[in-house]
Design goal:
alpha/beta; three-stranded parallel beta sheet; Undecaprenyl pyrophosphate synthetase; 7 helices; binds farnesyl diphosphate; 5 strands; 14% strand; 224 residues; two-stranded parallel ribbon
């Protein structure tokens, strides 16, 4: 969800207003995604590197997250969204951690859409925690295969992404789902996240539908 800060600055507003506008966008994107048949939507809200931002901005984002959880959980639940989290909950206040865990618990049986919030998430941090746990579990090196690594990732119970959308004109992956994105399709758009509406989502999905995904293989020849 990139570009919140620039969205606000362009309007002469403090950056935090951009994060507020970006948060407002989450509801409409989630609903539209569910309606067009997307069953797993993962939103990257805060990276392990975002702690380097000025304290005021970090505190503002944490406040917005706490308010959004309190305000949106009931509606998400009514609409059948299941909330999940990937990343580390360390560094969050016990109240915020509990609020997130309560929302996850409340919505755990919903199946309209699985909305995964990547908060305090980094792909390298995810791989490091997986390696540490694999070693701590004394796994025989001969038993380490891709399926085993998948089971140690934060994303162990969601499928790998088909499409990764990055807003705001940046052409980087920035440590997002490093392992899981091996065969993902990317969609880059100059649109800033608060302006990335349901129409833009549909446009990205339509473009994705025309991609030729070969997963390293070749297309079978067309029968004469
Ligand atoms: C990226 O834009 C956005 C963030 C680092 C924070 C996103 C946070 C929220 C949407 C609010 C809290 C989360 C939830 C799920 C309610 P940027 O600040 O890097 O923008 P810029 O590149 O234009 O500076």
């Amino acid at each position: 969800m990139d570009g919140n800060g620039r969205w606000a600055t362009k309007r002469g507003l403090p950056r935090i207003n951009g994060h507020e506008a970006g948060t407002e966008n989450i509801r409409r994107i989630t609903i539209r995604a569910g309606e067009i048949g997307i069953r797993y939507l993962t939103l990257w809200a805060f990276s392990t590197e975002n702690w380097r931002r000025p304290r005021d901005e970090v505190d503002g984002i944490l406040r917005i997250l706490a308010e959004a959880i309190a305000r949106e959980t009931d509606e998400l639940h009514e609409r059948g969204a299941q909330l999940r989290h990937i990343g580390s909950l360390d560094g969050l206040s016990p109240e915020l951690r509990d609020a997130i865990l309560d929302s996850i618990e409340l919505t755990r049986n919903n199946d309209f859409i699985v909305l995964t919030l990547a908060f305090n998430y980094g792909g390298r941090a995810e791989l490091l925690q997986a390696i540490r746990r694999i070693v701590a579990d004394d796994v025989d090196p001969n038993d380490i295969d891709e399926a085993l690594v998948n089971r140690y990732l934060y994303t162990c119970d969601i499928p790998e992404p088909d499409l990764i959308i990055r807003t705001s004109g940046e052409y980087r992956t920035s440590n997002f789902l490093l392992w899981q994105s091996a065969y993902a399709e990317y969609f880059f758009t100059p649109v800033l996240w608060p302006d990335f509406g349901p129409q833009e989502l549909v446009q990205a999905v339509n473009e994705y539908r025309h991609r030729d995904r070969r997963f390293g293989g070749i297309k079978p020849p067309v029968a004469e």
